[in-house]
Amino acid sequence: MTVDNRPNAADVDRVAAELEERLALESARRSVPMTAPSPFRGQATGWQKVVAHRALIMDIAAVTAGVALGYVLRFDRQVQVELFEPRGGQYALISIALAEAWVLALGVVGSRSPRVLGSGREEILRVVRATAGLFGLIAIVCYLIKFDLARSYVAVTLPVGIALVLAGRWLLERRLHAERARGGFQRRTLVVGARDAVVDLCRRVDRTHEAGFHVIGVCLPGGTAIPSPVEGVPVLGSPEDAAEIARTQRVDAVAVTAFDGATPRAFKRLAWDLEPTGAELVVVSALADVASPRLVVTPVDGVAMVQVSPPGYTGLQHAVKRVFDVVVATLILVVVAVPLLMFGALVRMTSPGPALFAQRRIGQNGKPFTLYKLRSMRQDAEDGLLEVLDGDAGVFYKPKSDPRVTRLGRFLRKYSIDEFPQLLNVIKGDMSLVGPRPQVELEVAQYDDALRRRLFAKPGLTGLWQVSGRNDLSLDQGARLDLYYVENWSLLGDVGIMLRTAREVFAPSGAY
């Protein structure tokens, strides 16, 4: 049987059109005189060099410390003596080579790239990938050359080294975020798209200074003939002018969101046009509040299709979460039992009424349960609720200066001490350590369809809202954080929220 491998007419026409478009673009480039290059040209300059150098120094220090500790613990006698023995001297050379290779591997995977530093998950993944790849390669080489690398040496060097590298990156991230909050170390960003999409993206960028994008202008359909929808940000042109504006305004990134002309051909042409300017092309998906582990990118004929996995509200992970809740809650309760009894006695001594306050709350899937707290208000507080709220009890109501709160109660609330009896609710299974805070029936009755999704997860002793500003956040911001948690939950994320909760207990903000 004969197979005809000749291209069909449609393929020939498509390739010819693309070639003609590319040639036209190259011709146009040659006819336009180039000005001085942008500050960002595929290699780090300015503040990008600063953060990259900081990461390099921190990596060298962390890896050296990890390797040195592995060497010292492997050879339990004095290091000075071991250096002159065959085995000790051999491992001294291995340690030096390992430290150099480790730092090199971290650079090869791009973990010190200015685009990655401070990004969180992606930076951590690259560090782990570099480390796992290096030690995997070492294991293969040792097997092939029949070298017996001491397991005790690797058992110390690998975990300690990667822990120190990640700790160093965390410190660098904190410093970078602080500098960006003050307005430094920002990418000059041009936002391109339709009016509503541009407004939404600019609002999100403004709320997230740590991402490092500073919007200097927008490009909207209609160009400069229409007023800017974003206060303080000018309209510099239309989407077709984006590349030229990036060149003249020395832009570091062009963020493109949805608009009518956003076709694959338009994106390709914009990417070509941005090549000589050095600006990054950032394509903003219409998906919002979906964590990256739920996204799978599949190329289909050159087009990236993003598949979104459904959120998992049940399954093995939640069984593991339940075990984690019971074990950790029991341990915490054992530690705080005596202080809780002391505070309970103080509550009884300073105001009439029981030390423990019990209230009906709504839990997972709308199931009611009894929540326990140390009483922080006077005994008849619930009777005076409508009077305090002046008849306006909306969703997530919480008066900032509530006269019903006792003097001791303010202290208990500030440091979240009144919440610790809810560890009993966690052990019983009514609540989890981490999740959206439970609410009363009056509030749940006012939920819309979006807020009702909060009930898909068990309510928590703490949550993403609570460690991100608590009552200082607006209703929309807090509800968005709760919904994000419900749909993108992970055990590792729970551990991170609990660590942040510990910090909030000792340095509280937004608590009243």
Q: How would you describe the overall organization of this protein?
A:
The chain has 512 residues and is of the alpha/beta class. It has 16 helices and eleven strands. The strands form four sheets. Strands 3-2-1-4-5 form a five-stranded parallel β-sheet, with helices on both faces. A two-stranded antiparallel ribbon has the order 6-7. The longest helix has 35 residues, at 316-350. The protein is globular and about 75 Å long. The model is unreliable at 27-45 and 78-86 (pLDDT under 50).
- The proportion of strand residues reads 5-15%
H/E order of the elements?
HHHHHHEHEEHEHEEEHEEHHHEHEHH
Structural class, please? alpha/beta
Rg, alpha carbons: 29 Å
Strand order of the largest sheet: 3-2-1-4-5
Helix content: 40-55%
Q: Major sheet: size, sense and barrel closure?
A: 5 strands, parallel
Number of helices: 16
Large-scale geometry = globular
Overall pLDDT score: 82
Low-confidence spans: pLDDT under 50, at least 5 residues? 27-45, 78-86
Number of strands: 11
Distance between the termini: 81 Å
